[in-house]
Amino acid sequence: MVRSTTIARASDALPLAATVDDEQTEHTLQEYKQQAKLIFRRITPNSEPQCSIESGPYALHYLIADNVIYLTIAEKSYPRKLAFSYLDELAKEFSHSYGLKVDGVRKPYAFVGFDTFMQKTARLYQDTRNAGGGNNLERLNGELQDVTRIMTKNMEELLWRGDSLDKMSHLSSSLRDESQKYRKAARQINIDAMIRQWAPVAAITVIVIIFIWWRFF
């Protein structure tokens, strides 16, 4: 089942809304909520717009729409179709209610009142074993989107990729600094070579000019 949901701004990972979880859920999902924050920080314009990230017994499903990230934590066995249909419902309602305000928000959890809609919608998307009857489940299955092309990753892959990107960024910065140092050194070597090449000629020219000036003036 859907256990917890957070909505954040994609451009800077500012949290906009989240479900109000009970103490037990908060304790159980503490590690995975930290992973959710990591995912928010790692999101870039080139990130997959929809993705499932598996971590232990849970999966973190996210959807990006209009500079907003919708992320929910659910058991790994929870159907991905239900998870992404749930997120799609949230995205439509959130965009309708707050879409024009998202970019101007400065304080976190400015739309905390959206919890009411998230809790109500989550109840409609319970696990198939507790979906409230076959008719309700058939109705949901008929409306669900195709998720076969949505990428699935694991948290270890995400962490490794993030570390690698950090290392590559550091390496790129170091190479850039070394390249600048090389260009400066090469420029100085060229200047020194020109001085050594033309200094004798310049000295002779000066001597000739002085001699001519002294002889005729």
Automatic annotation (TrEMBL):
<dbReference type="InterPro" id="IPR044565">
    <property type="entry name" value="Sec22"/>
</dbReference>
<dbReference type="GO" id="GO:0005484">
    <property type="term" value="F:SNAP receptor activity"/>
</dbReference>
<dbReference type="InterPro" id="IPR042855">
    <property type="entry name" value="V_SNARE_CC"/>
</dbReference>
<dbReference type="InterPro" id="IPR011012">
    <property type="entry name" value="Longin-like_dom_sf"/>
</dbReference>
<comment type="similarity">
    <text>Belongs to the synaptobrevin family.</text>
</comment>
<keyword id="KW-0813">Transport</keyword>
<keyword id="KW-0812">Transmembrane</keyword>
<keyword id="KW-0175">Coiled coil</keyword>
<keyword id="KW-0256">Endoplasmic reticulum</keyword>
<dbReference type="Pfam" id="PF13774">
    <property type="entry name" value="Longin"/>
</dbReference>
<keyword id="KW-0333">Golgi apparatus</keyword>
<feature type="transmembrane region" description="Helical">
    <location>
        <begin position="198"/>
        <end position="216"/>
    </location>
</feature>
<dbReference type="GO" id="GO:0000139">
    <property type="term" value="C:Golgi membrane"/>
</dbReference>
<dbReference type="GO" id="GO:0006890">
    <property type="term" value="P:retrograde vesicle-mediated transport, Golgi to endoplasmic reticulum"/>
</dbReference>
<dbReference type="Pfam" id="PF00957">
    <property type="entry name" value="Synaptobrevin"/>
</dbReference>
<keyword id="KW-0931">ER-Golgi transport</keyword>
<dbReference type="GO" id="GO:0006888">
    <property type="term" value="P:endoplasmic reticulum to Golgi vesicle-mediated transport"/>
</dbReference>
<keyword id="KW-1133">Transmembrane helix</keyword>
<dbReference type="GO" id="GO:0005789">
    <property type="term" value="C:endoplasmic reticulum membrane"/>
</dbReference>
<feature type="domain" description="V-SNARE coiled-coil homology">
    <location>
        <begin position="136"/>
        <end position="196"/>
    </location>
</feature>
<dbReference type="GO" id="GO:0015031">
    <property type="term" value="P:protein transport"/>
</dbReference>
<feature type="domain" description="Longin">
    <location>
        <begin position="6"/>
        <end position="118"/>
    </location>
</feature>
<protein>
    <recommendedName>
        <fullName>Protein transport protein SEC22</fullName>
    </recommendedName>
</protein>
<keyword id="KW-0472">Membrane</keyword>
<dbReference type="InterPro" id="IPR010908">
    <property type="entry name" value="Longin_dom"/>
</dbReference>
<keyword id="KW-0653">Protein transport</keyword>
